[in-house]
């Protein structure tokens, strides 16, 4: 994926303190201290919205491994990121800004308001409560921010078999997809509907929300391809990652069995299909995962 000559986003907040903990793209330095949280922390929460807001599952993430909360707010670094991974995230965020500022008005008659993306290490504060590395990346609608601990990328590559710069960009595109859902009113409606639903029905709604975010990430990728920034093997990276973080694959890894009624993000086949739908069409209208027959 071509990104190093792209502009840097003005909407990135680097709260990692000294920054540069995860220097470099695939491979990194390793040893980032998330320990045993890897499988537990990713199951059900990988690439998701903060579960306390949309799923009402704060009790489910209590006790998941990760670093202990700091006694004071994480120190923020000044200026744009200087490490390679920080600059990569900033460039991908800028690409999303440039694409959605055109696509959203054209296809949804809605002005694009960029989200802020917060880079943090271990634990931080968000408008949805405490952000923890164990939760994976998430979007918080109240403060319209995406929260990302870069150690997630290394664990995704090392433990789940999904990695590569375009795969990491897909993760960011998925979270920005949740911001799009918030802007066009889908997230508030989905949350209200969940509150009136049984646990099984609520999970099904969450799956539709997540698959639509995958499809919106595909719309972003369609436009990245049109800009000539996709290289050989990039799309395959994203597809492998989408497959690796399907609920069925994660449940097999953690439980040894698959329980479809407990899915919150969709199966590997569903995630790859919906990303590919957005990528192939470039159309937000093709991403209607809420039609009964679609999922």
Please tally the β strands and state the result.
6
- Judging from the principal axes of the Cα atoms, what is the shape? globular
Number of domains: 1
How is the largest sheet built, in terms of strand order?
A: 1-2-6-5
Number of helices: 11
Structural class computed from helices and strand pairing: alpha/beta
Largest sheet descriptor: 4 strands, mixed
* Structural Rg: 17 Å
Low-confidence stretches: 18-24, 26-75
Helix content: 40-55%
Q: How confident is the prediction overall: mean pLDDT?
A: 77
Explain this structure to me?
This protein is of the alpha/beta class. It contains 11 helices and 6 strands. It has one domain (12-287). It has helices at 37-42, 51-54, 58-61, 84-108, 151-160, 165-183, 186-195, 199-226, 234-244, 247-255, 268-281, and strands spanning 12-14, 116-119, 123-126, 129-132, 138-140, 145-148. The strands form 2 sheets. A 4-stranded mixed sheet has the order 1-2-6-5, with helices on one face. A hairpin with a 2-residue loop joins strand 3 (123-126) and strand 4 (129-132). It is globular and about 45 Å long. Mean pLDDT is 77; it is low at 18-24 and 26-75.
Secondary structure blueprint with pairings:
Blueprint: E1 12-14, H1 37-42, H2 51-54, H3 58-61, H4 84-108, E2 116-119, E3 123-126, E4 129-132, E5 138-140, E6 145-148, H5 151-160, H6 165-183, H7 186-195, H8 199-226, H9 234-244, H10 247-255, H11 268-281
Parallel strand pairs: 1-2, 2-6
Antiparallel strand pairs: 3-4, 5-6
Helix pairs in contact: 4-6, 6-8, 6-9, 7-8, 8-11, 9-11
């Amino acid at each position: 994926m071509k990104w190093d000559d792209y502009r840097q986003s003005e909407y990135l907040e680097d709260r990692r303190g000294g920054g540069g903990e995860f220097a470099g793209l695939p491979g990194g330095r390793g040893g980032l201290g998330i320990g045993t949280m890897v499988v537990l922390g990713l199951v059900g929460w990988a690439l998701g919205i903060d579960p306390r807001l949309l799923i009402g599952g704060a009790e489910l993430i209590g006790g998941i491994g990760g670093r202990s909360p700091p006694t004071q707010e994480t120190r923020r670094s000044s200026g744009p990121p200087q490490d390679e991974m920080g600059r990569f995230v900033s460039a991908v965020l800028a690409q999303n800004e440039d694409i959605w500022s055109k696509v959203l008005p054209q296809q949804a008659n809605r002005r694009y308001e960029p989200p802020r993306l917060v880079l943090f290490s271990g634990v931080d504060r968000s408008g949805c409560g405490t952000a923890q590395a164990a939760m994976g990346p998430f979007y918080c609608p109240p403060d319209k921010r995406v929260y990302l601990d870069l150690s997630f990328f290394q664990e995704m590559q090392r433990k789940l078999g999904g990695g590569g710069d375009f795969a990491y960009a897909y993760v960011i595109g998925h979270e920005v997809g949740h911001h799009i859902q918030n802007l066009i009113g889908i997230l508030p409606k989905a949350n209200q509907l969940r509150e009136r639903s049984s646990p099984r029905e609520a999970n099904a709604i969450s799956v539709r929300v997540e698959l639509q975010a995958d499809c919106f990430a595909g719309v972003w990728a369609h436009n990245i391809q049109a800009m000539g920034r996709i290289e050989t093997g990039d799309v395959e990276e994203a597809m492998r990652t989408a497959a690796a973080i399907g609920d069925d694959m994660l449940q097999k890894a953690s439980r040894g069995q698959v329980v479809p009624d407990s899915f919150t993000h969709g199966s590997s086949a569903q995630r790859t299909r919906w990303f590919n739908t957005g990528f192939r069409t470039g159309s937000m209208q093709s991403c209607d995962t809420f039609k009964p027959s679609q999922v």
